[in-house]
Amino acid sequence: MADVLAASKPSDWRPVDPENTLYMDLAAGRIVIELQPEFAPKHAANLRALTRAKYFDGLAITRSQDNFVVQWGEAHAPKSFGEAKPALAPEFTRPAAGLKFTALPDPDTYAAQTGFVNGFPAAREAAQGSAWLVHCYGMVGAGRDNDAGSGSGAELYVVNGHAIRMLDRNITLVGRVLQGMDVLSTMPRGRGPMGFYQKPEERTPIMQIRLAADVPVAERTNLEVLRTDTQTFTDLIESRRNRTDEWYKVPAGRIDVCSVPLPVRKAK
Amino acid sequence: MADVLAASKPSDWRPVDPENTLYMDLAAGRIVIELQPEFAPKHAANLRALTRAKYFDGLAITRSQDNFVVQWGEAHAPKSFGEAKPALAPEFTRPAAGLKFTALPDPDTYAAQTGFVNGFPAAREAAQGSAWLVHCYGMVGAGRDNDAGSGSGAELYVVNGHAIRMLDRNITLVGRVLQGMDVLSTMPRGRGPMGFYQKPEERTPIMQIRLAADVPVAERTNLEVLRTDTQTFTDLIESRRNRTDEWYKVPAGRIDVCSVPLPVRKAK
Question: CB distance from A2 to chain B under 8 Å?
Answer without folding.
Answer: no
